[in-house]
Design brief:
The protein has 259 residues and is mainly alpha-helical. The chain has one domain (13-258). The protein contains 12 helices and no strands. The protein has helices spanning 13-23, 29-39, 41-48, 51-66, 72-78, 89-104, 112-133, 141-148, 154-177, 194-211, 213-228, 234-255. Mean pLDDT is 87; it is low at 1-7.
Length: 259
């Protein structure tokens, strides 16, 4: 995933505890996620300051707002998205991916965090916008604009933000865990088969989605208030990312205690 900035697998006592939990077949996904967040929280703190992550979130906020305006394609191009005059949902999502990539190109802060943010933002935007029409290949700017406009309400932006952060955090956890999990597949391992390994990853994804509920209402309120009070800038988006990741980190860390 591009330039490595998160570093190698942690060689710490806390990461040894994660490995020990993986070896213990009675531990839950929630306990492993909590221990993994604790072991890698320094990296997550650094991630909150990654400009590419803030830029991705800022674009996620701006695209729905652009859908409120008369000329949707021009608004998208003003944000740095390369789209034609009649973009489909897929074209907008692809342009979002390209815009995040372009913002990272040649920068010292080009990182794996930026790549995680790019993938999470693209997937979230395309999934939620296409859910409105049931079609990624919308025809005409007006139909595409109508697909994105519902995401500009406080409620629906909260859902978009929750989806984005759940995908991002799941990728963050997998970044570390994926290098250890294969060591636990086999007759004597935690996972007797590749299927059980896959089921664990699916359970981790679900846990991240459930945990990200803590962001949803907070994001919706922030979106409406910030847009009303002078608009959503990159700096304000970056500030929100810091708070959202702290909330998610704390919620994941508490996850095991709710079992």
């Amino acid at each position: 995933m591009g330039h490595l900035r998160l570093g190698k697998l942690p060689r710490t006592q806390k990461w040894s505890e994660v490995v020990a939990l993986l070896k213990d077949k009675t531990t839950s996904v929630e306990e492993i996620a909590a221990a993994s967040i604790e072991a890698s929280k320094a990296g997550l703190t650094r991630a909150a300051g990654d400009p590419a992550l803030a830029h991705a979130f800022w674009l996620l906020a701006q695209i729905p707002l652009s859908a409120r305006r008369e000329s949707f394609p021009e608004g998208l191009r003003a944000l740095g998205l390369s789209v034609g005059d009649d973009p489909s949902v897929l074209e907008v999502a692809t342009a979002l991916s390209g815009a995040i990539d372009s913002s990272r190109a040649g920068k010292r802060w080009s990182s794996d965090i930026g790549e995680m943010a790019r993938l999470a933002a693209t997937e979230s935007l395309s999934a939620l916008a296409s859910a409105t029409t049931g079609n990624l290949f919308t025809k005409g700017a007006r139909e595409t604009q109508e697909a994105f406009k519902p995401l500009s309400t406080q409620r629906n932006f909260g859902i978009l933000a929750r989806d984005f952060f759940s995908r991002f955090v799941r990728r963050y956890l997998t970044y570390y865990l994926s290098r250890e999990l294969p060591n636990h597949v086999g007759p004597d391992g935690r996972f007797k088969s590749v299927r059980e390994h896959t089921e664990f990853n699916q359970a981790l994804d679900l846990h991240c989605r459930q945990t990200a509920r803590i962001v949803q209402d907070f994001a919706g309120g922030w979106f409406g208030k910030t847009d009303f009070e002078g608009g959503i800038t990159r700096e304000k988006a970056g500030g929100f990312v810091h708070v959202a990741l702290r909330k998610l980190r704390d919620e994941l860390a508490e996850g095991a205690s709710h079992q």
